[in-house]
């Protein structure tokens, strides 16, 4: 089958190959024919080493498709079901799943079965990005990593929910818990930022300010509900317009850059909340002075996969989409073949797109 493979961390391009084989279906496995997969900035971040992963691997993690086979221990899905890939599956038994009710933080499967090298190409075994590997015609996932959806939902729309949309909407609703009437600033107008903007609209924010260095993105942000959109250098003055000059109630950083993380923290008022959604590198630092935590009493919170529980939150997002409250089709600005994946990755690096979907 066809797949796009990252040979080594640091490579600018993926290798396209059609000789990839997939392991046999194990007792707890679900084999999925991927029909659609989005290109997310995290794919680029695995390529450049920001998100550490061992290569060679099949890239891609935001996907949806059709179940083609299941192991004998699988009970929740069957052949022919339509599913969304959940790249951060829960085990249901660890302290995060049970004691803290935070299944998104469970690492049992991500550090376990998701690490297996399930693809074979030219005699070499290949891993899969975060255990998903959706830049392939088929992949193998443990049962908790597939979420069944209704068959009338276009799989193209469903694929977006698999990562970017859930991450952005979830950060607003589950992590930051944006309140009606509040003012929010969102840094980054990619797939995650646009989802955060839409999440703020759903949460009833009165002001949603979008920030992006690409001027073309400022109009895009307004299309999805931003009430204002500005370039990064305009933020410092603009914050004076909110809360009698004190700043925003909430900031969401959806880029993954230490500079914009710091700018997001500075943009909120005393007692406000700064939520970091973007993924920066292990060696990158954000500076705070030791006085400001006491004086400003701000909440600084990270958000991992929108603090979601895929079992209910994927459906919650799709219900909002059905009700016309979330525009998912409008986020797709390009449809590509797998052969064009490197062109797609380049457009992500350039910050030109909201979402591109590969049709397999
Ligand atoms: N200042 C302002 N805007 C910036 C800057 C910057 N320094 N750097 C990038 N941007 C803008 C880009 O122009 C682009 O519009 O941020 C946006 C990022 O969008 P995408 O590349 O599409 O990223 P996305 O897939 O939305 O992911 C954002 O969330 O899940 C994480 O790993 C992901 O860190 C990434 C972040
Ligand atoms: Zn992603």
Plain-language structure description:
The chain has 2 domains: 3-162 and 328-359, Medium-chain alcohol dehydrogenases, catalytic domain (Quinone Oxidoreductase, Chain A, domain 1, Alpha-Beta Complex), CATH 3.90.180; 165-304, NAD(P)-binding Rossmann-like Domain (Rossmann fold, 3-Layer(aba) Sandwich), CATH 3.40.50. It is 27% helix and 26% strand. The protein contains 10 helices and 19 strands. Strands 4, 6, 7, 10, 11, 18 and 19 form a 7-stranded mixed β-sheet that branches. Helix 3 (155-176) crosses helix 4 (191-203) and helix 3 (155-176) crosses helix 9 (310-322). The radius of gyration is 20 Å and the shape is globular. The model has no long low-confidence stretch (mean pLDDT 98). Residues 40, 42, 61-62, 163-164 line the site of zinc ion (ZN).
Keywords:
360 residues; binds adenosine-5-diphosphoribose; alpha/beta; six-stranded mixed β-sheet; binds zinc ion; seven-stranded mixed β-sheet; Quinone Oxidoreductase, Chain A, domain 1; 10 helices; Rossmann fold; single chain; globular
């Amino acid at each position: 089958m066809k797949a796009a493979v990252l040979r080594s961390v640091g490579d600018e391009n993926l290798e396209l190959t059609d000789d990839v084989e997939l392991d046999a279906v194990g007792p707890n496995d679900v084999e999925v024919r991927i029909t659609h997969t989005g290109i997310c900035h995290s794919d680029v971040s695995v390529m450049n080493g920001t998100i550490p992963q061992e290569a060679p691997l099949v890239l891609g993690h935001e996907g949806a498709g059709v179940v083609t086979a299941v192991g004998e221990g699988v009970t929740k899905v069957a052949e022919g079901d339509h599913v969304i890939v959940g790249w951060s599956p829960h085990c249901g038994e660890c302290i995060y799943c049970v004691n803290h009710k935070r299944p998104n933080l469970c690492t049992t499967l991500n550090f376990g079965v998701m690490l297996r090298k399930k693809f074979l190409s030219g005699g070499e075994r290949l891993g899969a990005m975060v255990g998903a590997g959706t830049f392939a015609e088929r992949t193998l996932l443990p049962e908790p990593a597939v979420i069944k959806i209704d068959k009338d939902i276009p799989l193209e729309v469903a694929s977006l929910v698999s990562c970017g949309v859930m991450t952005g909407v979830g950060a607003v609703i589950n992590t930051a818990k944006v309140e009606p009437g509040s003012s929010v600033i969102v840094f980054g107008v990619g797939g995650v930022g646009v989802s955060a903007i839409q999440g703020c609209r759903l949460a009833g924010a009165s002001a949603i300010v979008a920030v992006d260095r690409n001027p073309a993105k400022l109009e895009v942000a307004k299309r999805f509900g931003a009430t204002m959109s500005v370039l990064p250098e305009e933020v410092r003055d603009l914050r004076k317009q909110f809360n009698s000059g004190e700043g925003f109630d909430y900031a969401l950083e959806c880029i993954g850059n230490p500079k914009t993380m710091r700018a997001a923290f500075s943009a909120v008022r005393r007692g406000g909340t700064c939520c970091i959604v973007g993924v920066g590198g292990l060696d990158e630092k954000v500076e705070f002075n030791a006085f400001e935590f006491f004086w400003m009493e701000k909440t600084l919170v990270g958000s991992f996969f929108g603090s979601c529980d895929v079992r209910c939150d994927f459906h919650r997002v799709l219900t909002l989409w059905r009700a016309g409250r979330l525009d998912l089709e409008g986020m797709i600005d390009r449809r590509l073949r797998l052969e064009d994946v490197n062109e797609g990755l380049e457009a992500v690096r350039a910050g030109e797109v909201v979402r591109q979907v590969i049709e397999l």
